[in-house]
């Protein structure tokens, strides 16, 4: 059991209960195995977030595309899509630079799944949105500015 | 808290919010944003709940709403909302979707209308009614608004709605027209439709009920109007009262022939 | 108990597109209620989607994902009538699983 895992259990976070549920046969074990990346979601600095994702300083790549509006009417719901045209894409992460906790979501892309995901995120203010892609063990990224007229973090 | 929001909204009629001053109004184009939200509108979650409620036996009479006549035949939901409000012979009244559903809940299920009229938005039976609204309007999405104004009672309501629309009242001496009779008017970044034109009326009428991303709530037209009465700083209208239905007849009637986008998704 | 998800899955030209709406508050833990008390964080942390028995997507969410989360993704293959199952779990241990047939 690594250090991060123990922390999560102590805090009674998602993984702890998840593990218990799995042990009780209430959920499938493969869900419990996927440990929530607390270090990444708690990161308040871009460097910390990148290192928690294992990404270091990823190179900007034109093969990573972000679909998001140039301007959002309300920051509470900002649509963000990421497409990676890099072969063997394994994961995609979405980060919002100016959010207090910048990592919004991470996606594991198994073989056979298209590297094309869309979700919606909260944005407290106008910010760059980052997409970080892992493919064949290497990291790539793209960014796009989204203007927000009304912040959506509600404090 | 709510009071400050109102004051800000009204104050902003003349002033632009400070963070907006830097952006020219041609930069405030939210079309791409709205289009991306239309697919997967969270209002669908309310629609699902509404569909379930429609088919579930409930209330003192333990009945479903599947025999409810929304104007196009008992149990017919398809296209019903596009023709509402309308005159109903069985009640002798002009009813909008909310008041008609309320009537069905009372007659078929035995759920007293008073419970809804005296209730609060998004709570209890009024909350359930809103989910039913989401279900019914979804089945008129993309249909043309087609409100029949030929019945004398409908004419009467249309005229009353028009009067109310221009009637100045409240602490600010505002009418609906104060905020909704110019093209391209904005409060903060929000564009307000010019409801005195057919296109503008259709824009307002045909995009509510809606899911509001700012607070993750689903609002019916009754809720939208109630909030505009508050914007106007007048007394709150009674839920599903004739004034609110008259305004709806006015807007729907003016918007006739335009396509409804139901349910909408709004800021 | 958490409310049901709305899942749509449609196969076209050998690719199945899945769109999911989840009913969840996604509370950040940074907001205060009217009395000034912090509203505790409550958000979906993990999500798994399966096509028949194969995992086709797993995701981790932080509190920055919007209330009533939306997710869309695509996987190769999938035929009409196949099962797509989506499960999530949140930081309080609530969970929800729903399934749909590919259209």
UniProtKB/TrEMBL annotation, chain A:
* Gene3D superfamilies, alphabetized: SoxY domain (2.60.40.2470)
The domain of life for this entry's organism is Bacteria
Give any Pfam family that matches: SoxY
Q: In this protein, which residues make up the domain named Ig-like SoxY?
A: 52-153
Record's protein name = Thiosulfate oxidation carrier protein SoxY
User: What organism is listed for this UniProt entry?
Assistant: Parazoarcus communis SWub3 = DSM 12120
Chain's gene name: soxY
UniProtKB/TrEMBL annotation, chain B:
Protein name per UniProt: SoxAX cytochrome complex subunit A
Q: Where does heme c 1 bind?
A: 68, 104
Q: Which GO terms describe its cellular component?
A: cytochrome complex; periplasmic space
Domain Cytochrome c as annotated: residue spans: 156-267
What interactions and quaternary structure are annotated? Answer: Heterodimer of SoxA and SoxX.
Q: List residues binding heme c 2.
A: 176, 179-180, 228
Mind telling me which InterPro entries this protein's record contains?
Answer: Cyt_c-like_dom (IPR009056), Cyt_c-like_dom_sf (IPR036909), SoxA (IPR025710)
Q: What is its EC number?
A: 2.8.5.2
Q: Which organism is it from?
A: Parazoarcus communis SWub3 = DSM 12120
Identify the enzyme class.
Answer: transferase
A GO molecular function assigned to this protein is: transferase activity
Q: Which catalytic residues are annotated?
A: 228
Q: Where in the cell is it found?
A: Periplasm
């Amino acid at each position: 059991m690594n250090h991060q895992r123990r922390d999560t259990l102590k805090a009674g976070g998602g993984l702890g209960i998840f593990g218990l549920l799995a042990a009780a046969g209430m959920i499938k074990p493969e869900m419990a195995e996927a440990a929530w990346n607390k270090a990444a979601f708690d990161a308040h600095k871009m460097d910390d977030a990148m290192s928690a994702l294992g990404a270091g300083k990823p190179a900007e790549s034109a093969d990573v595309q972000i679909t998001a509006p140039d301007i959002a009417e309300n920051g509470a719901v900002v649509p963000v899509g990421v497409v990676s045209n890099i072969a063997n894409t394994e994961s995609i992460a979405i980060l919002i630079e100016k959010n207090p906790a910048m990592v919004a979501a991470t996606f594991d892309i198994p073989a056979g799944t298209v590297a094309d995901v869309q979700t919606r995120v909260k944005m407290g203010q106008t910010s760059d949105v980052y997409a970080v892609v892992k493919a064949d063990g290497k990291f790539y990224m793209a960014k796009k500015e989204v203007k927000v007229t009304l912040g959506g973090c509600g404090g | 808290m709510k009071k400050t929001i109102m004051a800000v909204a009204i104050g902003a009629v003349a002033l632009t919010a400070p963070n907006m001053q830097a952006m020219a109004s041609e930069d405030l184009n939210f079309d791409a944003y709205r289009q991306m939200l239309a697919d997967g509108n969270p209002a669908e979650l309310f629609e699902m709940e509404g569909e379930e409620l429609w088919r579930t036996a409930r209330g003192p009479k333990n009945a479903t709403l599947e025999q409810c006549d929304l104007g196009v035949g008992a149990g017919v939901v398809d296209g019903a909302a596009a023709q509402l409000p309308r005159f109903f012979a069985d009640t002798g009244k002009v009813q909008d979707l909310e008041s008609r559903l309320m009537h069905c809940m009372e007659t078929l299920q035995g759920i007293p209308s008073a419970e809804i009229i005296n209730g609060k938005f998004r709570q209890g039976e009024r909350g359930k009614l809103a989910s039913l609204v989401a279900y019914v309007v979804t089945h008129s999405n993309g249909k043309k608004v087609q409100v029949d104004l030929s019945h004398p009672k409908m004419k009467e309501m249309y005229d009353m709605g028009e009067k109310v629309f221009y009637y100045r009242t409240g602490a600010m001496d505002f009418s609906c027209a104060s905020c909704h009779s110019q093209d391209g008017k904005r409060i903060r970044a929000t564009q307000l439709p010019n409801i005195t034109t057919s296109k503008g009326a259709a824009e307002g009428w045909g995009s509510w009920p809606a899911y509001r991303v700012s607070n993750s709530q689903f609002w019916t037209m009754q809720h939208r109007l109630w909030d505009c009465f508050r914007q106007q700083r007048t007394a709150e209208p009674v839920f599903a009262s004739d004034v609110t239905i008259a305004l709806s007849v006015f807007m729907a009637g003016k918007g006739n022939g335009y396509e409804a986008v139901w349910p909408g998704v709004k800021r | 108990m958490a409310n049901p998800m709305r899942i749509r899955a449609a196969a076209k030209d050998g690719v199945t597109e899945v769109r999911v709406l989840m009913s969840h508050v996604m509370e950040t833990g940074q907001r205060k209620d009217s009395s000034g008390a912090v509203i505790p964080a409550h958000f979906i942390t993990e999500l798994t989607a399966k096509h028949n028995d194969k995992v086709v997507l797993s995701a981790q969410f932080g509190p920055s994902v919007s209330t009533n989360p939306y997710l869309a993704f695509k996987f190769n293959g999938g035929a009409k009538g196949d099962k797509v199952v989506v499960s999530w779990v949140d930081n309080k241990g609530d969970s929800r699983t729903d399934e749909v047939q590919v259209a």
